[in-house]
Please model this.
Amino acid sequence: MSTWDDGSMRSLSKISEEETVRLSVDLVAASRRNLGFLRLVSESHWLHEKPTILESIRRYDKLWMPLISDLANGSTPPMILPPLDIEWVWYCHTLNSVSYRQYCESRFCKLIGKATIVNEENEEYALNRCKEIWVQRYPTEPFENESDSNLQNFVSILHEDLLNEVSKQRHLYTKFSEPYYSEIVYLIAARQRYKGFLYMMHRFADSCSILVPTSDILLMWLTHQSYPSAYALDTKGLEEEMRKVAGPWEVVKEEGIENTKKVWERIYDQPYEKAGGLSIGNAVEVKTPIHWEITDTDANAKYSSMLPRFLLEVCLTVKLKSKMKPLSCDASKEFLRLQMVRCHRELKIDKPLCNFTSQRWRKALHLYCEFGTKGMVLEARRRGGRCIKGSSLRESVIFLWNDLLRAPSLALSKEIDQTVRVATSITPPVQASYLLKCVPDRVSDDSGAMISDVILKMNHYRPQEGRWLSRTVLDHAGRECFVIRLRVGGGFWRRGAETPSAVKWEDRIIEIREGHWSYVAGSIGRAPVQRKW
Model:
């Protein structure tokens, strides 16, 4: 076991290149490309059929690896990319770095690496270049996968291992499907934490029998592994330690997670888990309040009247200062209160300080917040005071979302009342689903004007023709974005003896007008001009 001393603690943001393992691949750019690749694989359902997988494995083993081996002269891999099915098998094989290295050395007497191709133009060039070489070398073999059901009976030992590996990784994208994973600021923070993880392994891996990565560190690790030659170079001397790292589908015990947290906290004096970075295999999963729909288009570009809504994940962790005296029964009246900087003033979440200790960081809150709230206020309060049921404020601190976005690892820590340390982390805000509310409004006429004496007077008392039930659609900020109208009556109506003429059901019309009412006096106005859809 390692012996801990005062000099063992490090600042995660200040670990120098000399202290940690050097990274010979740009993991930020490579991870973004990796996420897009995993998403494409997840959406390509044909790729996961057994005949297709078996044909992909055959093509990978018999065709692609001999080809890339002959082209890989020296330490720099050639700038070519195989077809999607082969690239997927290759990717899955590299995630078992020990098996992949043994395979390459036993068959080709060298480790075969992969070129770092993250630019779309370079990717297209690399794929086309590969096709040219492929056609010349294998004129009778199609470049794309044309699976044959008869191959199901052909499964060698290598194929069986690869088949299990490929089948196991089929749903890998589900672990990184939230849209904030591809944000540059998130990936930069994840790379920094991954380097801290490597440093922790280098110095203190013998303190744990298993090391459980968080999801952000896992993304960096898997991406790093997918470039075999760079990974072997960067982790040279850490082979035994790397075998202790839990894989994405490995079942881990709570003890393994806690031991990893302890080592991390002892080195960096920071919480190990953070917003967007829970330990894999953790029994406690945060259920997202919305469906994260990943799309390449922004609905707000079409509906400019809608105010975009952005959400971010927030994790609040608390630790008492070591010099703080143990809480007595009277001191148990101390508690922390969370409120928003802007909006939602009625939101008050209280956490008693007796729930926390000075030995370990403990998670106090894990929630989702609107970016428009600007930030959160944490107050140290004490029950009692002027009102028996009330509480008195001792001190407060503010965490602004913009400050956290500029902070290393997207996290900040502050002290409250010289007794409590609070660490807050966030994920980058991403556009979320719209929240819309429909409220009843005044009846309007055929022209879209509200039925009112004001409008009647403006029209020189010419009667308003037609009657439409009106509803106004508001977004999450209370902003008018649509007016919905249903035609229910016709004819000219005046104030007096006239009675409405009902519209037949088949003649009823529903209008949806984008925009807001044009108010002419108080709450009286006209519906927005109807657009052609």
